[in-house]
Design brief:
The chain is mostly beta strands. The protein has a domain at about 430-530: Immunoglobulin-like (Sandwich). The chain is about 5% helix and about 35% strand. The strands form eleven sheets. Strands 7-6-3-2-35-36 form a six-stranded antiparallel beta sheet, with no helix packed on it. Strands 32, 34, 37, 40, 41 and 42 form a six-stranded mixed beta sheet that branches. It is globular. Bound molecules: 2-acetamido-2-deoxy-beta-D-glucopyranose (5 copies). One 2-acetamido-2-deoxy-beta-D-glucopyranose binds near residues 271, 286, 288, 289 and 313.
């Protein structure tokens, strides 16, 4: 169906071009565009408003300054490509950095970004109060996801810094919540213990029955938040491991009504043993080109993982939703590992080499073996290896930043600290696009609502897709809480209004901020920001 939509589109452009319509650009295609300088290494990237991305680095010697020292947080204006330093007091890890005074260790840190309505972020604040607001346990390299009551579930990590693997004596083999549950006492996880030592940044997804899928190392489970039970799923096939420092990436494929059947896709990583000391590993060891996909129903679990191949191997790839339901596969290296200068032959200080410069698209609805293509995709010359990030923006393109496989800022080495920001722009960025003229501030579960829309006359409106999306939080080849739920919709005959039905409950889309994108014949609108659910602070009760 998607390839049909593409065909319709290209036929239409040809027709319009031949009429010499000046509004229709020539040869619409995917492009990389350089956008300016991020000021800090964007090792974390989060869309926080229709116009702003929030970047964080470790407390380091980034060039962007605040109060006479390096900043390690910044707001990126998606409209002007301007960067503004944020006043951050917590570091990203337990260490200090000489050039930055008064850094508090960040391994129990919680930062709360207070959204504000100013498009440039003026007056938006970052709230930190390490004495009263912190995790129960030290965690370096944990993951966090939003769960059905709107709280965060925080999973795994390590109590100390590590050069490479997690560590049997210092692992944080536990799960905790924010705001706290269980009287603030972290829950032990047999899964995290079992998946040592290559289990940092566990990848986790909320499933539409309210349980949580997790994958770490080569193992996966479904976790019941209410009972703490872990259901063990089959290991990833062929010895492939996908969490830090052997990072692949994982994504929950788009959920569609009426059944919202969950499927998980895991790509890249490495098939080396997890008991080889890092100084016996090489930056030239081929990464894995394997994608593994599982349907998380009884029948799907019995069938197990189905394997397909990317066009190339990738360690630290990124998997990101497009509003039309495709998945972008981007970034990473063809060989080596995550982390810094621990293999016997780092390139500069990078444990990874052979950066992959051309992204691919994965079409979940296509047949096995026909899902992955880089046809029409552009090629960049900027390596995005360890400590890089990418996110879908409300504008509908992808923001790509960071990469720094170095201890601090290092501009003289191969794979130097990367401050150049790029966007990857889909063909529709230069076309006449549909728009959601206005959207309700809040969207209730199961609610049917109507929004005014505009649809360019160039579009036949053969396929209409309405995606409710959490754009996630990008770091270390994982997009925490990223989610795409398709909503049923009807376009009015005059093509001026769209009637949409929101997801039925908070398991399908946990309450919190979201963007709605309208895609007509593969041409996507900009995103309209909404609050799903009441907007009350977590934990929300029914
Ligand atoms: C940053 O925060 C510190 C500590 O709260 C404060 O002393 C300083 O004035 C702040 N700087 C800016 C530019 O807001
Ligand atoms: C594991 O952690 C312990 C405790 O912090 C530390 O003493 C030890 O050196 C670590 N082992 C490795 C291999 O990093
Ligand atoms: C997963 O990793 C463990 C530990 O290295 C290993 O014993 C097991 O055989 C692996 N599973 C598969 C299917 O390769
Ligand atoms: C590991 O992956 C490499 C590169 O994809 C491949 O050549 C090799 O056969 C794999 N080894 C095993 C044991 O699967
Ligand atoms: C950059 O990395 C190289 C290779 O490790 C090292 O020799 C050099 O001292 C580093 N420069 C800085 C500024 O850290």
């Amino acid at each position: 169906m998607l390839s049909l939509a593409f065909n319709v589109l290209s036929v239409l452009s040809t027709v319009l071009l031949s009429r010499g319509n000046p509004l229709v650009p020539r040869a619409s295609q995917w492009t990389f565009t350089e956008k300016g300088n991020s000021g800090i290494v964007a090792l974390e990237s989060i869309i926080v408003s229709p116009t702003l991305a929030l970047f964080f680095d470790r407390a380091s010697d980034d060039p962007l300054q605040i109060d006479g020292h390096s900043a390690w947080g910044a707001l990126w204006d998606l409209q002007t490509s301007e960067v503004t330093a944020l006043n951050v007091s917590l570091g990203g890890d337990p260490r200090g950095f000489a050039g930055n005074p008064d850094i508090e260790p960040g391994n129990m840190g919680i930062r709360i970004f207070e959204p504000c309505d100013n498009p440039a972020g003026v007056g938006c604040t970052l709230f930190e109060d390490p004495t009263t607001l912190h995790l129960a346990e030290k965690r370096w390299y944990p993951s966090s996801i939003r769960i059905p009551d709107g709280s965060l579930m925080i999973i795994g990590g390590i109590h100390v810094n590590t050069d490479f693997y997690n560590n049997l004596t210092a692992a944080a083999n536990t799960i905790e919540f924010f705001p706290p549950k269980d009287g603030g006492v972290p829950r032990p996880s047999a899964f995290l213990k079992r998946s040592l030592p290559a289990n940092l940044f566990p990848r986790a997804f909320l499933l539409p029955d309210g349980k949580v899928f997790m994958v770490a190392n080569n193992q996966s489970i479904i976790y019941d938040i209410d009972t703490g039970d872990e259901r063990i799923l089959p290991d990833l096939p062929n010895g492939v491991r996908v969490t830090n420092p052997l990072d692949g990436s994982a994504i929950l494929l788009p959920l569609s009504p009426p059944d919202f059947t969950p499927e998980v896709l895991v790509c890249g990583g490495s098939n080396v043993s997890d008991s080889i000391p890092p100084d016996q590993l090489s930056s030239q060891t081929p990464a894995s080109d394997q994608c593994s996909r599982i349907t998380l129903t009884e029948e799907g679990i019995q069938k197990g993982w189905a394997v397909e191949k990317m066009l190339e191997a990738r360690v630290m790839p990124e998997l990101v939703h497009l509003p039309n339901g495709q998945i972008l596969i981007i970034n990473g290296g063809g060989t080596g590992f995550a982390a810094i200068a621990t293999v016997f032959d780092p390139v500069g200080n990078s444990n990874a080499d052979h950066p992959v410069f051309t992204p691919s698209l994965y079409t979940p609805t296509a047949a096995l073996g026909e899902r992955i293509s880089n046809k029409g995709m552009p090629t960049t010359d900027i390596a995005r290896l360890y400590h890089s990030s990418v996110t879908l923006t409300p504008q509908g393109n992808f923001l790509i930043a960071g990469s720094n496989p170095n201890a601090n800022t290092n501009l003289t080495v191969k794979f130097s600290s990367e401050f150049r920001v790029e966007t990857l722009d889909p063909p529709f960025m230069t076309m006449a696009r549909p728009s959601i003229v206005s959207a309700p501030t809040k969207v209730g579960f199961g609610q049917t609502f109507t929004v005014p829309v505009t649809v360019p006359s160039s579009l036949k409106a053969t396929t209409i897709q309405v995606a409710l999306m959490d754009l996630g939080f990008s770091s270390h080849a994982f997009h925490s809480s990223a989610r795409l739920v398709f909503m049923t919709s009807t376009l009015s005959k005059d093509r001026r209004s769209l009637t949409i039905t929101a997801p039925p409950n908070r398991n399908v889309f946990p309450p919190g901020p979201a963007f709605i994108f309208l895609t007509i014949d593969d041409v996507t609108s900009t995103g309209a920001r909404v609050m799903v659910g009441s907007g009350a602070p977590p934990p929300q009760t029914d």
